[in-house]
Amino acid sequence: MFQSTRHWCVALAGSICVVAANAAPMPSAPARDQELVDEAVHAWAASWDRGDVPQYLSHYADNFVPAGGLTRQQWEQQRRMRLKITAIRHVMLRDVQVDVSADTARARFTQHYLDLDQMSTARKRLTLVKQSGEWKIREEQVETERLVRR
Asked: Where are the beta strands (DSSP E) in 27-133?
């Protein structure tokens, strides 16, 4: 696709350009990466919300380092157990802001979490890296959290 002064060439048929006057431009590479990071973050939250453990864990990079000094294996066991015992949960993200620089991205957002035992609102920051063409979480940090146990 290329842009002339007022029109977008959306297809070439031989040497003839099929023009669409109101076609949306292709996003630039950085803008497309921002969209892909945003989609990855929302897909991560959706898999958590559904309790889809394999899908949830697949959003983490091979070099993900868990907080609290846990090994990756300990952290995965903990996450599997928590997702298994919490049958009903709701995860919602608000105000997602994404910054991309080459193959690293940062996403900041407010996360609302609710299950049968607790509800929380947390300000989180994820650092993501591009791994085999997909954005994966390398680091997860809770900046602030308000937790209410029921």
From this structure: 89-101, 104-115, 118-131
pTM of the predicted model over 0.85: no
Topology annotation, domain 28-149:
Nuclear Transport Factor 2; Chain: A, (3.10.450)
Q: Judging by DSSP bridges, how do beta strands 8-13 and 2-3 pair with one another?
A: antiparallel
Tens digits of pLDDT across the chain (150 residues): 333 333 333 333 444 434 444 545 545 667 899 999 999 999 999 999 999 999 999 999 999 999 889 999 999 999 999 888 887 899 999 999 999 998 999 999 999 999 988 999 999 999 999 999 999 999 999 999 998 987
**For the chain, what are the domain ranges?**
28-149
- Determine the length of the chain: 150
Burial category of 60 from C-beta neighbours within 10 Å (exposed 0-12, middle 13-18, buried 19 and up):
buried
